[in-house]
Amino acid sequence: MSEVLDVAKKDGRWVECPSCAEIIITRKLQENLWVCHHCNHHFRLGARDRIGLICDEGSFEELALADHAGDENPEDAIRAGKASVKGMPCLLGVMDFSHKGGSMGVAMGRKIVQLMDAAQETGLPLVFFTASGGVRIHEGIWGLFQMLRTVHARDRITRSPVITVFTDPTTGGVTASFAALADVLLAEPGARIGFAGPRVIQTVLRSELPEDFQNAETLLANGLIDRIVPRRDLRDTLFFFLRWF
Ligand SMILES: [Zn+2]
Description:
Helix 4 runs parallel beside helix 5 (141-156). With 245 residues, the chain is α/β, with parallel strands linked by helices. The longest helix has 17 residues, at 106-122. It has nine helices and nine strands. It has two domains: 1-43, no CATH class; 45-244, 2-enoyl-CoA Hydratase, Chain A, domain 1 (Alpha-Beta Complex), CATH 3.90.226. It binds zinc ion. Residues 17, 19-20, 22, 36, 38-39, 41 line the site of zinc ion.
């Protein structure tokens, strides 16, 4: 039986939930917006799937890039564009953890700044979906500069609301820079949100960390985020805030 399952998993018909280990039919999972029926685990989504889930069909338009330096790559760890959610227009930055851990390098920093400048110029609300291990550390100091650069650009926005939706995982220099500086901070259930990862902290502290360490629920209880939004309610919640602003 397990071999049959292995084959089925390999060809993509079945998926094993990383949280509860239940085997789920991929089609069913997809119909449930990639949320486990058994334990409510929210599977990580790539940028393309996220855009498909959030935006009105066909409304997402990739941002035209101001310049075409060699590092500009549409397949970078962020997709930046303009879209509408239930008819409400907004600017959208969607990070993709499957692309180099969603790390923020120079190209991503540039796209984020462009989004922020566009928000200031147009007055459109700006929504980020974050999923990142932090700064792209192999870009060295230039990677770290992106924290400063994005925070500085965020500071210039006076006309538009900024909304961050933290998805699993959002850590490092992304949490510690522009992502946490939004006007509204939302998160998907169970998302890990933090700075240093638990393994690093555990090693430094030499003590066991609680199981709910750095998850969205703990952050909400401690007042660091505003609301946890199940994936099926995200479009409605975004619409609520976009209309409100
Ligand atoms: Zn599950």
